[in-house]
Amino acid sequence: MPLKVSLVSAENEVWGGEASLVVAKTVLGEIGFMPGHEPVLAVLAQGEVRITQLDGTKIVANAQDGFLSMDGDEVSIVAGNAALIS
To answer: Which NCBIfam families does the record match to this protein (predicted)?
Structure first.
């Protein structure tokens, strides 16, 4: 079962869709999420969010000032500032 991912900034949704892997930077270090990961709530640090889509395509965004959560194969990343870089 894939991850359902939502990356939003204060202004809009930056990216949403299904993925096999999400890696983000928190104030405690980088964390990666795959389907079946335990629930997590963490403070987002400034840095890259890397999303690997089901077909292997990679999405990269810069994000800062927010939080991320993982629960039931749903990853939500809420940032004050976020933008796609590739």
So the answer is: PRK13442.1
The number of beta carbons lying within 10 Å of the beta carbon of residue 19 is 22
Q: Which domain holds residue 70?
A: 3-84
What pTM was computed for the model? 0.95
| pLDDT tens digits in sequence order for the chain, 86 residues long | 899 999 999 999 999 999 999 999 999 999 999 999 999 999 999 999 999 999 999 999 999 999 999 999 999 999 999 999 96
Using CA atoms, how far apart are residues 18 and 2, in angstroms rounded to an integer? 6
- CATH of residue 19's domain is 2.60.15.10
